[in-house]
Structure prediction request, 523 residues.
Amino acid sequence: MFTLSGGHVFPLYDGAVKADPPLRLVDVRHEQTAVFAAEGLARLTRVPGLAAVTAGPGVTNSVSAVTSAWFNGAPVVVLGGRSPDYLWGKGALQEMDHVPLLAPVTKRAWTEHAADRVASSVNEALRLALTPHRGPVFCDFPLEAIYGEATVDFPDTALPAPSPPDGQDVAAIAALLGQARRPVLVLGSDVWLGGAEETARLCAEALRLPVITNGQGRGILPRGHSLLVTRARSVALAEADLVIVAGVPLDFRLRYGSFGPQDAPAKVVHVADSPGGIAAHCPLAASASGDLGAFFTALADACGQRPAGDMEWLAQLRGTARAAVAADTSLLETEASPVHPMRIYGELLRELDDDAVVIGDGGDFVSFAGRVIEPAFPGRWLDPGPYGCLGTGLGYAIGARLAHPSSQVVLLLGDGAAGLSLMDVDTLVRHNLPVVMIVGNNSAWGLEKAPMKAVYGYDVAADLRPQTRYDEVVSALGGAGEMVTSPAGIAPALKRAFNSDVPYLVNVITDVTAEYPRSTSGV
Prediction:
């Protein structure tokens, strides 16, 4: 249970401490970190993350993090305190109706007023969070309910059986694959969250489909896989005649579902884990909803395990992907000063174990990471997702360290993002959770500075203090760190960080002019 202490939720702590076995309590320095940690744990383990926040500001501080979990389809349960019913309307401490705030960004938000229904409400919250489409659930308890006593039977904890996709929908998609010459399969986060990563890989291999991975779909086809063409993404989506998108919305990350040449648009298939996830804003050639693992098995069977598309198309995309990787070599090894962000990743790639968990919290600096860091396994990459909420990093790192206590956990921070959550290094220290943190410190909000200058000819409100010692902040909080100003200093600093048994921050001063080359702004 992730939390920040508050009297309205003391009974939850009492229950956690007295449980057999006790439920681990991780107390943080900001309620958003509590929910981000719960989200990170949920997204890595695929079991519900749990956060408890006190009434009033405890709940309002959590709203951005709950919204992030909503956009990411993360099964998170947030339990809130609430002022007592018998004083409602009289101005009790932190009296506020939380439910209207949380309702738009949760699967359900409600207040449980009766002590004898607290257990069933928590059980319902856990069930809802895990039922596709997964997402956060909020329930708060007035003081009478949470401090009250009642004897109840434990509720049934069984989850409903997953719904298989409609066979006719699968047959229609198989028919489209049989006609396609240039198909592409896009795998998103819900493929991982739904436990469909193995069947997705087997389906792609059976049909010889070029695959682009997105979000937590990264690693479903491990780096170096012959079908993985994420680095040829632009060409693949611009020239395909059929794009099957599974487990991710057709949002700004995927051109809002518009693919293929302008004079011959690609046919688009959307596959989601529940009917409400199917895109309604763009024309679809076919769609399917239901258990994603069952979908991929059924699709492979419907296609007769025969390769789809033209093998020359796959060869073209593989060649484009290889060329893109090769083109990065000069930047990964550059001796330029100030340091180019890519040089940091050139050194980091040499230090990462196959089972490392890599977390991104930032704009341009993390975009470079997404370009060159390809996981060896699924469930080893976390980024803020389509909501784009910075400040996720420390919470995600806490959740990742608890989820994978024996793996490397690496947190990549832009210096802007660092300012939103770095105080929770104190949480890492107090709970003995070592994490390697790398800050790309370019003294700017890089994602905004260059675009504003391009639009207006100047920029404002986009500069940060040069060479801020974020490493000394970490040291002051009980961890360790150092500042790096040259390419030669990166590798030794990273080795010291990975050999350390404390939270360690490597603060690399980077080139503010090294912009990430974007093809979309998201608007």
Q: What stands out?
A: The mean pLDDT is 96. The CA atoms of residues 255 and 262 lie 13 Å apart.
